[in-house]
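Hello,

Our lab assistant flagged a job as stuck in the queue for most of the afternoon. It eventually completed. Since we weren't sure the result was trustworthy after the delay, we are filing this so someone can double-check. Below is the sequence as submitted and the structure that was eventually returned. Let us know if re-running is recommended.
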Amino acid sequence: MDFERIRSFVESYIGDDSEKLELLRENARNAGVPIIRRDAADYLKLVLADIKPARILEIGTAVGYSALYMSEQLGRMHIAHSIDTIEYDEVRADTAEKNFKDFGKTDIIRLFRGDAAEVLKEFTEQNSEAYDLVFIDAAKAQYMIYLDYVMNMVHPGSVIVTDNIFESGLVLESHFLVEKRDRTIHDRIREYIERIKKDERLETAILSIGDGIAVSVVTGNDR
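-- returned structure --
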């Protein structure tokens, strides 16, 4: 089966972003900045419509596309919301901050700079209000660490969406068939998948959308 043709067919039915958001997507693609794929974003829109999150945590801002996409979709649904997003790379964080200003979203989207694990640790120490939706799209080798913190910042009914869970097909290969330089990330993603599938506090589905999405509904947590 030609999955690329299927993907192209599906994406042909996906509505365009707003003109400004579409330009941001194109600029990110031209700059080689990885952002959420169209079909994954289309699925994320369904999640937003279903759970109507008031508070969102995003781990991995990049240039701000996905945070702006979520805010735009929730705005169309007339759902009041706030988004906290974390980015380690200073150049991308600068670009994201500019984009948030250009879109008039600085009152809705808060950007936190720094290593995600360290920022998340600070969040848990503050014991702030729980998040309704967590979107993880950052350093794949750190997903397990992020999850440990995230589970202290959600409530039963929260949804955790993890993007790029297939790592461009890398995770499908045997450990010994993967290049040595890629084995750590291969092994850690597989460990992460096993963790979210077996964690009794989560109900998780792995979906072959985009580069693979894990959708976990929180049934219990450590708060």
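-- support follow-up --
The delay was a queue issue, not a problem with the job. The result is valid. Residues 53 and 124 are 20 Å apart (CA to CA). The chain has eight helices and seven strands.
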